[in-house]
Amino acid sequence: MPNKLVLTGIDELRVELKSLPATLQAESDPIVRARATKAQAQIVAGYPEVTGRLRAGVKVLPQSPGQRRAAVYTLVSDAPYARILEFGSARIAPRALFLPITETERRAAVVDVVSLVESKGLDVRGGHD
Amino acid sequence: MIDPSEVERALIGKLAGDALLAGFLPDGVYFDLAPQGSTRFAIVSLSTSRGLDELDDGITFRAFVYIVKGVTLGTSGSTLAGADKRIQELIDRQPLALPAAAGATLFVSRWVDRIRYTETVANEIWQHRGARYEISVTPA
Question: Please, what is the Cα angle at B53 between B57 and A32, to 5 degrees?
Fold first, then answer.
């Protein structure tokens, strides 16, 4: 007895799969931006305020993610004293703030994006910490 | 229980006990701050740390990222270059003898990123050169 299996919706599935990276990229952007902004706020709150340059120098700069990355935001602290504060002077101990906060929020952003990808039914494997 | 203070003590002890490094930085190795009057010294300072609780609802390992840098007064870079190289030789992918009191064994000791800057204070020029190093340990 002949059997016939008919699969329908393949063309639609192909279209969906093709658009998935762009969709994920678009949905990842606000997630990553929120983490970057949160880090910025924490750093600003933690910096001492003397002239205001240190706090004003903390900026979130959006970058082009290209085709293979979800979203890219660069956090900078460009006041001249920022490096001295982070790594110390000859007579003042380091007061690490920028790196601990940015590293924590970067890891959290990765976890958030992985959750987003998994919410689409995809499996994310391998170290992404 | 992992005792981070013992991990730090082991790291500083290793650096302080090295004759080659002492040749470059004779004023010693200190945590956070060197004594007044020091002009050629090494600083170890905690930059970041975190624990990973991944297996058996317990601590899989803890990662400590330390600033390890040489600091010298003056404009000559050769002393500091030698110190920077020696620090890297001592820490990057090298063993670290942890005492039983640390409650931990070394998982990895590695170079993370470079530190280099010049500081001018009251007509004095200080140079800082080194790196951040990750010391990750697992419970003993």
Answer: 130
pLDDT, one tens digit per residue, over B16-34 is 999 999 999 999 999 999 9
Host domain of residue A108: 28-113
CA R_g for chain A = 22
Q: Please write the tens of the pLDDT for every residue from B58-96.
A: 777 899 999 999 999 998 888 999 999 999 999 999 999
pLDDT of residue B54: 63
Residue A103 resides in a domain: yes
Q: Has domain B4-139 been given CATH number 3.90.800.10?
A: no
What value of ipTM does the predicted structure carry?
0.86
Domain membership flag for residue A3: no
Query: Average pLDDT of chain B?
Result: 93
**How far lies A72's CA from each of A32, A127, B24, in Å?**
7, 19, 41
Cross-chain residue pair A94–B48, CB shorter than 8 Å: no
| Distance from the A42 Cα atom to the nearest Cα atom in chain B, whole angstroms | 15
Q: Does A4 touch chain B (CB under 8 A)?
A: no
Interface test with B, best of A87, A106, A110 (most B CBs within 10 A): A87
